[in-house]
Write a structure and sequence with these properties.
It is built from 13 helices and six strands. With 277 residues, the chain is α/β, with parallel strands linked by helices.
């Protein structure tokens, strides 16, 4: 999501997102609500509402529907979000994934190329953005960093969502960004692993069998208990809604969970890596 979890396809502030936020803010004020007072009416935090109004998050359908009802917005918010979904600023496959990710009850990620965006430190993410080709300018880098930090809030704002990550051991051995960046990254991942809703497993470098050789994947369960998936390549991503495809990817992910180190052994490995470097 990377989101994606990769370094390129995350939602960042765009004119369309900012315009939708301005429309929402206008109707909120017209109805006499503050962000804090609207929060219990629609079931989203004041911080979440602020993020939407500032154009830093893509508005989920449930958010739009509840805001429409609470603010008596004459269908304007739905029209605005439909226009937003057609803009070119966000890849169509990622728009839908980002939309679902914000309300998922379970999110499972296997990554073999880089640390997933949800787990990255700012220094690690900055290293990825600085090294992108074609190069990004400073404004683009800062916008993407802000979007990534904002997206990571779901780890703490959704304590009832189950997050599972399977990470290749070599991602920590690569030393992306240098020694200090790597040490900070390991510390950060270890700290996140203390949360009850986050499980991290390491796939060891030496492995005679591996169910994930076709590349990274993400699996997501909605509040309605529907499952979706996405996979990603160099400059493209594919959203999967076909139950047969999703079932196949679930099968591979389940096998990888058995092939990777247990959660306890993974934490121990990271601690040893932290002490050895």
């Amino acid at each position: 999501m990377s989101s994606s979890t990769s370094s390129s396809n995350e939602p960042e502030p765009t004119e369309g997102l900012k315009a939708f936020g301005a429309v929402l803010k206008s109707f909120r004020k017209r109805a006499g609500y503050t962000q804090e007072s609207l929060s219990p009416e629609i079931g989203y935090s004041a911080h979440f509402i602020a993020s939407i109004e500032q154009g830093r998050r893509f508005p989920p359908t449930r958010f739009v529907d509840r805001s429409e009802a609470a603010l008596d917005a004459f269908g304007t918010l739905r029209l605005a979000v439909n226009q937003l979904s057609r803009q070119r600023g966000l890849a169509s496959w990622f728009r839908r994934w980002a939309h679902l990710e914000q309300e998922a009850v379970a999110l499972s990620t296997y990554e073999c190329r880089l640390i997933p965006g949800l787990l990255q430190t700012e220094a690690y993410a900055r290293t990825l953005f600085v090294n992108r080709l074609p190069p990004l300018d400073d404004e683009q880098i800062e916008a993407r960093l802000a979007a990534r930090v904002e997206r990571q809030r779901i780890l703490t704002e959704r304590p009832n969502t189950a997050f599972s990550f399977i990470l290749e051991e070599h991602l920590f051995l690569r030393g992306m960004g240098g020694h200090e960046v790597t040490m900070e990254l390991i510390d950060h991942v270890l700290e996140l692993s203390k949360r009850r809703n986050i499980e991290i497993q390491i796939m060891p470098v030496a492995r005679e069998s591996h169910a994930g050789l076709d590349g990274p994947m993400q699996l997501l369960e909605t509040p309605e208990n529907k499952w979706f998936a996405y996979t990603e390549g160099q400059e493209s991503g594919q959203f999967h809604a076909d139950p047969k495809v999703v079932s196949m990817l679930q099968m591979r992910y389940a096998r990888m969970r058995a092939q990777a180190l247990s959660f306890e052994d993974s934490v121990s490995l990271l601690k040893r890596m932290r002490g050895a470097q």
